[in-house]
Design goal:
Helices cover 44% and strands 15% of the residues. With 372 residues, it is α/β, with parallel strands linked by helices. It has a single domain, classed as TIM Barrel, CATH 3.20.20.140.
Length: 372
Protein backbone atom coordinates (compact mmCIF):
# COMPACT_ATOMS: atom_id res chain seq x y z
CA UNK A 1 0.00 0.00 0.00
CA UNK A 2 1.39 3.39 -1.05
CA UNK A 3 2.39 5.44 2.02
CA UNK A 4 4.43 8.22 0.40
CA UNK A 5 1.93 11.04 0.88
CA UNK A 6 3.40 14.35 2.05
CA UNK A 7 2.46 15.24 5.62
CA UNK A 8 0.80 18.56 6.44
CA UNK A 9 0.75 20.10 9.91
CA UNK A 10 -1.38 22.74 11.57
CA UNK A 11 0.47 25.60 13.36
CA UNK A 12 0.02 23.81 16.69
CA UNK A 13 1.72 20.70 15.32
CA UNK A 14 -1.33 18.48 14.74
CA UNK A 15 -1.09 16.31 11.64
CA UNK A 16 -3.82 17.10 9.14
CA UNK A 17 -3.16 13.76 7.47
CA UNK A 18 -4.05 11.91 10.68
CA UNK A 19 -7.39 13.69 11.10
CA UNK A 20 -10.48 11.74 9.95
CA UNK A 21 -11.71 13.24 6.71
CA UNK A 22 -14.60 12.89 4.30
CA UNK A 23 -14.24 13.28 0.54
CA UNK A 24 -17.42 14.07 -1.39
CA UNK A 25 -16.06 15.34 -4.71
CA UNK A 26 -13.25 13.19 -6.10
CA UNK A 27 -13.17 11.94 -9.71
CA UNK A 28 -11.97 8.41 -10.37
CA UNK A 29 -10.38 9.39 -13.69
CA UNK A 30 -8.71 12.37 -12.00
CA UNK A 31 -6.96 10.40 -9.29
CA UNK A 32 -4.70 7.93 -11.06
CA UNK A 33 -1.09 7.39 -10.06
CA UNK A 34 1.26 8.46 -12.88
CA UNK A 35 3.15 5.16 -12.71
CA UNK A 36 -0.13 3.27 -13.10
CA UNK A 37 -0.96 5.30 -16.22
CA UNK A 38 2.43 4.42 -17.71
CA UNK A 39 2.05 0.71 -16.99
CA UNK A 40 -1.54 0.45 -18.18
CA UNK A 41 -0.71 2.45 -21.31
CA UNK A 42 2.10 0.01 -22.09
CA UNK A 43 -0.27 -2.97 -21.92
CA UNK A 44 -2.59 -1.46 -24.52
CA UNK A 45 0.06 0.16 -26.73
CA UNK A 46 -0.90 3.74 -25.88
CA UNK A 47 1.61 6.58 -26.16
CA UNK A 48 1.69 8.92 -23.17
CA UNK A 49 3.43 12.30 -22.79
CA UNK A 50 6.20 10.76 -20.66
CA UNK A 51 7.24 7.33 -19.42
CA UNK A 52 8.78 8.83 -16.29
CA UNK A 53 6.27 8.99 -13.45
CA UNK A 54 7.49 12.28 -11.99
CA UNK A 55 7.60 13.95 -15.40
CA UNK A 56 4.14 12.64 -16.29
CA UNK A 57 2.71 13.94 -13.03
CA UNK A 58 4.23 17.34 -13.75
CA UNK A 59 2.75 17.28 -17.26
CA UNK A 60 -0.75 16.78 -15.89
CA UNK A 61 -0.33 19.63 -13.41
CA UNK A 62 1.08 21.97 -16.06
CA UNK A 63 -1.64 21.18 -18.58
CA UNK A 64 -4.34 21.66 -15.96
CA UNK A 65 -3.20 25.17 -15.03
CA UNK A 66 -5.02 26.59 -18.02
CA UNK A 67 -7.59 28.86 -16.44
CA UNK A 68 -10.26 27.11 -18.52
CA UNK A 69 -12.46 24.17 -17.61
CA UNK A 70 -12.62 23.06 -21.26
CA UNK A 71 -8.81 22.93 -21.54
CA UNK A 72 -8.52 21.37 -18.07
CA UNK A 73 -10.83 18.55 -19.16
CA UNK A 74 -8.59 17.64 -22.11
CA UNK A 75 -6.12 15.95 -19.76
CA UNK A 76 -8.75 13.31 -19.09
CA UNK A 77 -8.28 11.95 -22.60
CA UNK A 78 -5.14 10.27 -21.26
CA UNK A 79 -6.56 8.89 -18.03
CA UNK A 80 -9.78 7.55 -19.50
CA UNK A 81 -7.84 5.87 -22.30
CA UNK A 82 -6.16 3.50 -19.82
CA UNK A 83 -9.47 2.78 -18.05
CA UNK A 84 -11.17 0.81 -20.82
CA UNK A 85 -10.51 -2.74 -19.65
CA UNK A 86 -11.83 -4.64 -16.66
CA UNK A 87 -8.29 -5.04 -15.31
CA UNK A 88 -7.53 -1.35 -15.72
CA UNK A 89 -10.71 -0.26 -13.96
CA UNK A 90 -10.17 -2.66 -11.08
CA UNK A 91 -6.59 -1.50 -10.55
CA UNK A 92 -7.41 2.20 -10.74
CA UNK A 93 -10.33 1.88 -8.30
CA UNK A 94 -8.26 -0.28 -5.93
CA UNK A 95 -5.40 2.21 -5.81
CA UNK A 96 -7.81 5.13 -5.55
CA UNK A 97 -9.20 3.71 -2.31
CA UNK A 98 -5.71 3.00 -1.00
CA UNK A 99 -4.62 6.58 -1.60
CA UNK A 100 -7.69 7.97 0.15
CA UNK A 101 -7.10 5.71 3.15
CA UNK A 102 -3.47 6.82 3.43
CA UNK A 103 -4.73 10.41 3.44
CA UNK A 104 -6.94 9.72 6.46
CA UNK A 105 -10.23 9.60 4.55
CA UNK A 106 -12.81 7.52 6.42
CA UNK A 107 -15.64 7.96 3.91
CA UNK A 108 -15.35 8.82 0.25
CA UNK A 109 -17.71 9.15 -2.68
CA UNK A 110 -16.03 8.34 -5.97
CA UNK A 111 -17.63 9.90 -9.03
CA UNK A 112 -17.05 8.73 -12.56
CA UNK A 113 -18.84 8.41 -15.91
CA UNK A 114 -19.34 4.79 -17.04
CA UNK A 115 -20.26 5.93 -20.56
CA UNK A 116 -16.63 6.98 -21.06
CA UNK A 117 -15.23 3.48 -20.51
CA UNK A 118 -16.83 1.40 -23.26
CA UNK A 119 -14.34 1.58 -26.15
CA UNK A 120 -12.93 -1.92 -25.62
CA UNK A 121 -16.18 -3.83 -25.50
CA UNK A 122 -17.31 -3.60 -21.88
CA UNK A 123 -20.95 -2.86 -21.12
CA UNK A 124 -22.19 -0.19 -18.73
CA UNK A 125 -23.00 -2.81 -16.11
CA UNK A 126 -19.63 -4.49 -16.50
CA UNK A 127 -17.67 -1.29 -15.92
CA UNK A 128 -19.66 -0.50 -12.78
CA UNK A 129 -19.06 -4.01 -11.49
CA UNK A 130 -15.33 -3.76 -12.24
CA UNK A 131 -14.99 -0.47 -10.37
CA UNK A 132 -16.90 -1.90 -7.42
CA UNK A 133 -14.60 -4.92 -7.36
CA UNK A 134 -11.59 -2.61 -7.22
CA UNK A 135 -13.20 -0.53 -4.48
CA UNK A 136 -13.91 -3.57 -2.32
CA UNK A 137 -10.42 -4.99 -2.73
CA UNK A 138 -8.98 -1.57 -1.90
CA UNK A 139 -11.06 -1.40 1.27
CA UNK A 140 -9.89 -4.89 2.25
CA UNK A 141 -6.22 -4.03 1.73
CA UNK A 142 -6.58 -0.78 3.64
CA UNK A 143 -8.03 -2.76 6.54
CA UNK A 144 -4.96 -4.99 6.54
CA UNK A 145 -2.90 -1.85 7.17
CA UNK A 146 -5.17 -0.68 9.97
CA UNK A 147 -7.28 1.84 8.02
CA UNK A 148 -11.07 1.81 8.08
CA UNK A 149 -12.68 3.41 5.05
CA UNK A 150 -16.08 3.31 3.39
CA UNK A 151 -16.68 4.16 -0.26
CA UNK A 152 -19.74 4.89 -2.37
CA UNK A 153 -19.95 5.32 -6.13
CA UNK A 154 -21.52 8.41 -7.70
CA UNK A 155 -22.54 7.42 -11.22
CA UNK A 156 -22.08 10.38 -13.56
CA UNK A 157 -23.64 11.27 -16.89
CA UNK A 158 -21.84 13.63 -19.24
CA UNK A 159 -23.64 16.95 -19.72
CA UNK A 160 -22.88 17.18 -23.44
CA UNK A 161 -24.13 13.67 -24.25
CA UNK A 162 -27.70 12.38 -24.52
CA UNK A 163 -27.47 9.31 -22.29
CA UNK A 164 -28.70 10.87 -19.05
CA UNK A 165 -31.75 8.65 -18.55
CA UNK A 166 -29.80 5.52 -19.47
CA UNK A 167 -27.09 6.39 -16.95
CA UNK A 168 -29.69 7.26 -14.30
CA UNK A 169 -31.24 3.83 -14.79
CA UNK A 170 -27.77 2.29 -14.46
CA UNK A 171 -27.25 4.10 -11.15
CA UNK A 172 -30.54 2.86 -9.74
CA UNK A 173 -29.84 -0.65 -10.99
CA UNK A 174 -26.61 -0.74 -8.96
CA UNK A 175 -27.76 1.07 -5.83
CA UNK A 176 -27.44 -2.22 -3.95
CA UNK A 177 -23.94 -2.74 -5.33
CA UNK A 178 -22.06 0.30 -4.07
CA UNK A 179 -23.81 3.15 -5.89
CA UNK A 180 -25.05 5.91 -3.58
CA UNK A 181 -25.97 8.74 -5.94
CA UNK A 182 -25.96 10.40 -9.37
CA UNK A 183 -24.14 13.36 -10.91
CA UNK A 184 -23.78 15.17 -14.22
CA UNK A 185 -20.37 16.55 -15.20
CA UNK A 186 -18.33 17.81 -18.13
CA UNK A 187 -18.58 21.04 -20.10
CA UNK A 188 -21.04 23.17 -18.14
CA UNK A 189 -21.56 26.30 -20.23
CA UNK A 190 -24.16 25.67 -22.92
CA UNK A 191 -25.24 22.30 -21.53
CA UNK A 192 -27.89 23.01 -18.88
CA UNK A 193 -29.16 20.48 -16.41
CA UNK A 194 -32.56 20.74 -18.07
CA UNK A 195 -31.19 18.73 -21.00
CA UNK A 196 -31.31 15.74 -18.65
CA UNK A 197 -34.73 16.43 -17.16
CA UNK A 198 -36.01 12.95 -17.97
CA UNK A 199 -33.15 11.48 -15.96
CA UNK A 200 -33.78 13.77 -13.00
CA UNK A 201 -37.51 13.00 -13.06
CA UNK A 202 -36.74 9.30 -13.01
CA UNK A 203 -34.22 9.66 -10.18
CA UNK A 204 -36.68 11.66 -8.09
CA UNK A 205 -39.28 8.93 -8.47
CA UNK A 206 -36.68 6.36 -7.41
CA UNK A 207 -35.49 8.47 -4.43
CA UNK A 208 -31.90 8.47 -5.70
CA UNK A 209 -29.78 11.36 -4.31
CA UNK A 210 -28.37 13.80 -6.84
CA UNK A 211 -25.41 16.17 -6.91
CA UNK A 212 -24.83 18.34 -9.96
CA UNK A 213 -21.72 20.09 -11.22
CA UNK A 214 -22.78 23.73 -11.32
CA UNK A 215 -21.37 27.16 -10.62
CA UNK A 216 -17.90 26.26 -11.88
CA UNK A 217 -17.74 27.21 -15.58
CA UNK A 218 -21.15 28.86 -15.60
CA UNK A 219 -22.98 31.13 -13.20
CA UNK A 220 -26.26 31.48 -11.35
CA UNK A 221 -28.39 30.18 -14.22
CA UNK A 222 -26.54 26.88 -14.08
CA UNK A 223 -26.96 26.70 -10.30
CA UNK A 224 -30.69 27.40 -10.66
CA UNK A 225 -30.92 24.54 -13.15
CA UNK A 226 -29.10 22.17 -10.82
CA UNK A 227 -31.42 23.02 -7.97
CA UNK A 228 -34.76 23.13 -9.71
CA UNK A 229 -34.35 20.88 -12.76
CA UNK A 230 -31.86 18.52 -11.16
CA UNK A 231 -33.32 18.58 -7.62
CA UNK A 232 -29.68 18.64 -6.46
CA UNK A 233 -29.06 17.96 -2.77
CA UNK A 234 -25.48 19.18 -3.22
CA UNK A 235 -23.72 21.47 -5.69
CA UNK A 236 -20.57 20.22 -7.38
CA UNK A 237 -18.30 23.21 -6.75
CA UNK A 238 -21.02 25.87 -6.64
CA UNK A 239 -18.35 28.50 -6.07
CA UNK A 240 -20.01 31.02 -8.37
CA UNK A 241 -22.93 31.15 -5.99
CA UNK A 242 -20.91 34.05 -4.56
CA UNK A 243 -22.11 36.06 -7.58
CA UNK A 244 -25.45 36.22 -5.77
CA UNK A 245 -23.92 37.85 -2.68
CA UNK A 246 -23.58 41.64 -2.45
CA UNK A 247 -21.23 43.21 0.08
CA UNK A 248 -21.80 46.89 0.72
CA UNK A 249 -20.46 49.52 3.09
CA UNK A 250 -22.66 51.66 5.30
CA UNK A 251 -19.77 53.75 6.55
CA UNK A 252 -16.07 53.41 7.37
CA UNK A 253 -16.76 50.96 10.19
CA UNK A 254 -19.75 48.94 9.04
CA UNK A 255 -20.48 46.70 6.09
CA UNK A 256 -23.57 44.78 5.12
CA UNK A 257 -24.20 41.59 3.16
CA UNK A 258 -27.23 40.89 1.01
CA UNK A 259 -28.02 37.42 -0.29
CA UNK A 260 -29.81 37.05 -3.59
CA UNK A 261 -32.63 34.51 -3.94
CA UNK A 262 -30.45 31.63 -5.14
CA UNK A 263 -27.83 32.12 -2.42
CA UNK A 264 -30.58 32.50 0.19
CA UNK A 265 -32.18 29.25 -0.93
CA UNK A 266 -28.90 27.32 -0.84
CA UNK A 267 -27.96 28.61 2.60
CA UNK A 268 -31.39 28.22 4.17
CA UNK A 269 -31.80 24.68 2.84
CA UNK A 270 -28.23 23.77 3.91
CA UNK A 271 -27.39 22.52 0.43
CA UNK A 272 -23.74 21.52 0.56
CA UNK A 273 -21.15 23.24 -1.61
CA UNK A 274 -18.48 20.79 -2.83
CA UNK A 275 -15.70 23.38 -3.02
CA UNK A 276 -12.32 22.40 -4.45
CA UNK A 277 -9.86 25.28 -3.87
CA UNK A 278 -6.91 24.27 -6.07
CA UNK A 279 -9.09 23.08 -8.92
CA UNK A 280 -11.21 26.24 -8.76
CA UNK A 281 -8.02 28.25 -9.31
CA UNK A 282 -6.87 26.05 -12.20
CA UNK A 283 -10.15 26.19 -14.11
CA UNK A 284 -10.73 29.91 -13.64
CA UNK A 285 -13.88 29.31 -11.60
CA UNK A 286 -12.93 32.17 -9.24
CA UNK A 287 -11.58 34.52 -11.93
CA UNK A 288 -14.21 37.13 -11.05
CA UNK A 289 -12.61 37.52 -7.62
CA UNK A 290 -8.93 37.01 -8.44
CA UNK A 291 -6.27 34.44 -9.19
CA UNK A 292 -4.95 33.59 -5.74
CA UNK A 293 -6.32 31.32 -3.04
CA UNK A 294 -6.87 34.36 -0.82
CA UNK A 295 -9.34 35.57 -3.45
CA UNK A 296 -11.43 32.39 -3.24
CA UNK A 297 -14.95 33.02 -1.88
CA UNK A 298 -14.58 29.99 0.38
CA UNK A 299 -14.11 32.06 3.54
CA UNK A 300 -16.95 34.41 2.65
CA UNK A 301 -19.30 31.47 2.19
CA UNK A 302 -18.08 29.85 5.40
CA UNK A 303 -18.49 33.00 7.48
CA UNK A 304 -22.00 33.52 6.11
CA UNK A 305 -23.08 30.09 7.27
CA UNK A 306 -23.17 28.12 4.03
CA UNK A 307 -22.53 24.39 4.33
CA UNK A 308 -19.04 24.40 2.84
CA UNK A 309 -17.08 21.21 2.29
CA UNK A 310 -13.47 20.81 1.14
CA UNK A 311 -12.60 18.52 -1.75
CA UNK A 312 -9.81 17.69 -4.17
CA UNK A 313 -11.82 17.31 -7.41
CA UNK A 314 -8.91 15.68 -9.29
CA UNK A 315 -5.88 14.78 -7.23
CA UNK A 316 -3.69 14.03 -10.24
CA UNK A 317 -4.47 17.20 -12.18
CA UNK A 318 -4.12 19.43 -9.13
CA UNK A 319 -1.19 17.46 -7.69
CA UNK A 320 -2.96 17.51 -4.35
CA UNK A 321 -4.59 15.55 -1.54
CA UNK A 322 -7.43 16.34 0.83
CA UNK A 323 -4.89 17.03 3.58
CA UNK A 324 -3.10 19.47 1.28
CA UNK A 325 -6.32 21.30 0.40
CA UNK A 326 -7.09 21.72 4.10
CA UNK A 327 -3.54 22.93 4.74
CA UNK A 328 -3.79 25.49 1.93
CA UNK A 329 -7.03 26.85 3.35
CA UNK A 330 -5.56 26.95 6.85
CA UNK A 331 -2.57 28.93 5.60
CA UNK A 332 -4.70 31.32 3.56
CA UNK A 333 -7.46 32.07 6.05
CA UNK A 334 -5.96 31.21 9.42
CA UNK A 335 -8.22 28.24 10.06
CA UNK A 336 -7.49 26.07 13.07
CA UNK A 337 -8.41 22.51 13.95
CA UNK A 338 -11.93 23.52 15.00
CA UNK A 339 -12.61 24.95 11.56
CA UNK A 340 -11.32 21.83 9.87
CA UNK A 341 -13.65 19.78 12.07
CA UNK A 342 -16.61 21.89 10.94
CA UNK A 343 -15.77 21.17 7.31
CA UNK A 344 -15.70 17.43 7.97
CA UNK A 345 -18.95 17.51 9.93
CA UNK A 346 -20.54 19.44 7.07
CA UNK A 347 -19.43 16.67 4.73
CA UNK A 348 -20.70 13.95 7.08
CA UNK A 349 -24.10 15.61 7.24
CA UNK A 350 -24.20 15.85 3.44
CA UNK A 351 -23.04 12.34 2.56
CA UNK A 352 -25.45 10.26 0.50
CA UNK A 353 -26.04 7.83 3.35
CA UNK A 354 -29.00 7.03 5.60
CA UNK A 355 -29.42 9.36 8.58
CA UNK A 356 -28.16 6.85 11.13
CA UNK A 357 -25.00 6.23 9.12
CA UNK A 358 -24.38 9.96 8.71
CA UNK A 359 -24.65 10.33 12.47
CA UNK A 360 -22.16 7.49 12.97
CA UNK A 361 -19.83 9.19 10.52
CA UNK A 362 -20.11 12.47 12.40
CA UNK A 363 -19.38 10.67 15.68
CA UNK A 364 -16.24 9.17 14.13
CA UNK A 365 -15.11 12.63 13.01
CA UNK A 366 -15.64 14.11 16.48
CA UNK A 367 -13.82 11.24 18.15
CA UNK A 368 -10.87 11.53 15.78
CA UNK A 369 -10.52 15.28 16.24
CA UNK A 370 -10.70 14.92 20.03
CA UNK A 371 -7.73 12.54 19.88
CA UNK A 372 -5.65 14.94 17.74
Amino acid sequence: MNTSLEEFLLPGGASINALPKISLHDHLDGGLRPQTIIELADTIGLDVPSTDAAALGAWFADQSNSGSLVDYLKTFDVTTAVMQTREGLIRVAHEFVQDLAVDGVIYGEIRWAPEQHLTRGLTLDQVVEAVQEGIESGIDEAAEFGSTIRIGQLITAMRHANRGLEIAELAVRHRGNGVVGFDIAGAELGFPARNHLAAFDYLAKEFMPVTVHAGEADGLGSIRGALFDGRALRLGHGVRLAEDIVIGREDDDNTYVTLGPVAQWVRDREIALELSPSSNLQTGAIAAWGDDLLDHPFDLLYQLGFRVTVNTDNRLMSDTSLSQELALLSDAFGYDIDDLEVFQLNAAQSAFLPLEEREELADAVVAGFEEA
